[in-house]
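Worked example (supplementary).
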Amino acid sequence: MKIGLEMHFQLPTRSKLFCSCPTSAADPNHNICPVCLGYPGSRPSLNRKALEVGLSIARFLDCRIEERVWFSRKTYFYPDLAKNFQITQYESPLGTDGHFDLNGRRIGIWRVHLEEDPGRIKRVGRSGEEVSFVDYNRSGIPLVEIVTAPDMQSPAEARAFIDQLIIELRSLCDLDAQDEQKVRVDANISVGEERVEIKNVQGLRNVERALKFEAARQTKLLAAGKKVILETRRYDEERKVTTSAREKETEEDYGYIGEPDLGEFHIGQMAEELDLKETPLVRARRLMADHGINEVTAKQLVLTSSSLADMFELLCRSVSSEKAVTWTMGPISSNWSALQDHHELWSEVVAAVKADSDGEITDNEAKRRILSLAGVKQETAEAGDADLDHMISDFIDAHPEVLANYRKNVKAANTVIGHVMKESRGRYSSKDVVEEVRKELEKRV
Amino acid sequence: MSVPAPHELIRFAKERYHAFTEIAETFVDAEFHFSAKDNLCANGFQARAGSAILEGYVPPFDATPVHRLKTAGGQLVGKTTMDEFGFGTFCVNSAHGIPLNPFDIQRSCGGSSGGAGAAACLIPGHIALGVSTGGSISGPVSFCGVVGLSPTYGRVSRYGLIDYGNSLDKVGLLSRSATLVREHFQTIAGPDPKDPTSCAQPQLPTKGRMPDSLAVPKEALANLDPAVSKGFQEAVGRIQEMGVKVEEISMPSLRYAMPAYYILATSEASTNLARYCGMRFGRREEELNQHFNDFFSGVRSQSFGDEAKRRILLGTFCRMVGFRSRYYLKSLAVRQMLIEEYRKVFEDHQMVLTPTMPFLPPRFEDIRKMTPLEIYGADFLTIPPNLTGMPHVSLPCAYQQGLPVGMQLVSDHWREMDLLEMSSEWEGHFPYRFPEVGP
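After joint prediction of all chains, the assembly is encoded as:
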């Protein structure tokens, strides 16, 4: 089975790709101007920030980057497309021939390019009496399109690919936190010879479902001695099936020409000068190589928080990597929320671990020291616990009927739990609250 | 005979000559009056670009050249008549009337900035903003006996211009005198962040240099109307008397300019015109309760003129699979080749001199008999500098049968001030004539 993906992510810029309209949420048709509405006489000018982010993605994916790029017009008629052509990149993408390593397998990246998003159509009203509205707030939002080679071998692998890519891109360029749900994907899949394109699937979960359905459909067809036809299909999220879209546009049908209003961009130097952040999975691979730790531990370190991985690397300078792993994943990790923002304490944590490693103190002593370093917070936590106890007993004192009810039905505890959760506004975890309430009620019963 | 006041002239120009599609309600005591071709956006005026499909479109902004002239103290007195989206050589393809030539109202003003040509001719001191894609300034300038500059591509911001062919469109000026053109050109030229293609230009020099040698390509002298030939030869004689050398040369690539131009211009135009579909702005009379494809087709079939439809079809065809590399991409190569051929000429000469139009302003009855291809052919002298993005001026150079004959000077990129220097000098040697306009 071969699967290739075309993914569209929104780039994290404050303004649109070709005008200064904001990209933030707003009432329909509020973030619009003559440019993103395609008014006659208006003209695009490129958002440099979008170019920069797009280039850093191309470089991160190890793409070849040409010195000179330009934009193209892709012409088709649709009500959400303000100019009835989309400004995109055709002959000259930002990057080509890159790759992404997915759990040790190399997935080819064919191209990375920038383009503008069309508006959004909303249909309202009862079936048969539907009315369509167009919201152009999205018109001109910058997207990056990443096209892979058909190198993935299963729907699960395709999902893992997008998942890991999002982790990396999020750290590289602050992609949207909702991208697992918002990513828009066109997926090509072939079980036998002929491929099928599933267009415009939104969200990670739907991509996997659509591919699974399509893989099963093609396998069944082939097993029955039938042929899979080259076509475009759509994924129906409700019914969880793909259906034929009865159309197959080829790229050439869009009648691409250069976008004369934007001219050419010399990007070689800009691409070279970009300072790429080390992304989590790349860092995990480096930690494995530098410190000989296993993949699970490495990923756990970088995905918990990048500062925990910083702590780990700091420890590695003073103690062996086995020791560093044991302590980082143990007492340090469990008290990390109290320690991570207090950089001044980090060296004392290292000193404790080093003293232990050198045999100067016992494990227990080292642990006690780390806990006491984090202790400022612990005391507050204890004080907090005391508050919780008070809140519970005060409520039970004031409402004796609760205890009476509890004797008949333990569900009466919910009254107390509900009150405390509301009063404390989520300061305590529901698990703690439930536990403490039960304890107090049981004590009084 | 008394000379009418400027406002009266503006009204005459609109009512008698159809030079304007709309004029200001009141005229203020401004530093100067100017007009804008109807494809340039301006607050408070419709911008219909000669098309019925833009009926009622009042843009919410000023085009940069309009804005700059207003800032310099000018009043925008009206929008001038044009061929629909600039598609035409005689200004007969307009949804808003056909301008009449001030020298003979039976004849064409030229196109597509026909109204601008007529206004510049009729109103002394008037400055008209025109737009040239393939000769839309030079043509009317020649037929209306005025002076016109089409600057280097990218010299004047196109922000606020309703596009025809974005890689070819240039905003320029028409007027009775080169002095006025120079003054206002300095106002409208210069980079504008709202049009990225205007931001790569070198600074405009304050003064131009007179050429010492002009080149006349012999290919440009074939197929001329005898009256134009005669007038042009007289002008060459006068130029030599001014002490400027004139030498005949050969530019074999000129003949490829026209097909390449029509392919590039219509390819771009067919995408530019895609946005006119009855949504968001302009005319919308179709029934909304139908599939969007039918709605769009309905609006477009009804509101575009024949020439617009012809160019959309031609351009769409050129962009399609199988034809794109044969036509569109090859035309881009022709453009490059022609630029190199001009550059070679500019090694020994400062400018290329030709007649502007191959015949005298034609009668409307004769235009009706011409085929589209014959009409396209009329632009063969104005297309080459437009295709290569080189600046050019057209100046009156003779009068034949009571009608003006125009000559065109082309220089290398960014050398507009040299062209204007030569134009001013020429005015001193050849007095222009303008038709009298009675009250």
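Two points are worth noting when inspecting this output. Chain B touches chain A through 46 residues (CB under 8 Å). The longest strand of chain B covers residues 392-400.
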